[in-house]
Amino acid sequence: MPDTIPGSLRAYLHGLPGVDEVGVQRRAAGLATRSIKTTAKRQAIDLAIRMVDLTTLEGADTPGKVRALAAKAVRPDPADPSVPSVAALCVYPDMISTAARALAGTGVGLASVATGFPAGRTSLEVKLSDTATAVEAGASEIDMVIDRGAFLAGDYAKVFDEIVAVKEQCGEAHLKVILETGELVTYDNVRRASWLALHAGADFIKTSTGKVTPAATLPVTLVMLEAVRDYQAATGRQAGVKPAGGIRTTKDAIRYLVLVKEIAGDDWLDPAWFRLGASTLLNDLLMQRTKLGTGQYSGPDYYTID
Fold it and tell me: Would you identify the family this protein belongs to, as annotated (predicted)?
């Protein structure tokens, strides 16, 4: 259920404290320099693997590719059963049935982008139909995109009401709300969109579709982590954050884990509350994990191409 917001939505959102742009960038840059020792690095890599939403969102996706990616989601390294499964597999709605059969009984979540991904410029009726179809086909998570045009035009009520409606259509499935922060222009808008989505019932707020540049950045994610932290303090409800797009290396992933710990706290260091949206990150995590164990890189050709 959405939260009750006192007064007008516009007054509420514009009454949020402004973001210190220089301060946010400086703090994110400072945290990105933190180093992790070898013992902790292995734990961080395994945690990052467990947080990955393994993703394929291409027009050329085939049932065979989705089945192969589902197998990789469950068993990232077939030669090493100690490697944990990823959090979820994310695909287009028409591939949900194929993915659901491949993931049945594995414990790996199944996410579907819906609501007119990636632009979000379609009718509410179509968005709700997309969502219902994906959930009926087996999606346990829905990644919806907000109407950025409506948000930037100041039509906050339209964005809020659409999130509420999609959340209701999700039923038991979790709702991740994609803000597409690269199109929101300012950190203040990122903060407003984050709070709007949280009050409308989002289970997660997500940076990007991966189709717009810039996608995820550390400063933007920092602002969103502050939002979920402060929202929980104000309402008692915990929600998650998912940076997505452009996260390709183990070093990138660890920087995000440090950010989570320092900004939101240890409670968010869990796949239930933090995810990494990526299509190429997993292979680098596997290579770095192998090097820690053997002292040698296995090389990118050792792993399947996502």
Answer: Belongs to the DeoC/FbaB aldolase family. DeoC type 2 subfamily.
154-173 pLDDT per residue, tens: 999 999 999 999 999 999 99
Catalytic member of 130, 143, 203, 284: 143
Catalytic residue among 127, 203, 206, 284: 206
**Domain range summary for the chain, segments of one domain joined by +:** 9-295
Residues 16-21: contacts with CB within 8 Å, 24+ apart? 16/188, 16/191, 16/192, 16/195, 18/188, 19/186, 19/187, 19/188, 19/190, 19/191, 19/223, 21/186, 21/187
Is 301 assigned a catalytic role? Answer: no
Q: Kindly report the CATH class assigned to 9-295.
A: alpha beta
pTM of the model: 0.94
Give residue 5's pLDDT band: very low, low, confident or very high (50, 70, 90): confident
Report the distance separating Cα 254 and Cα 160, nearest Å. Answer: 33
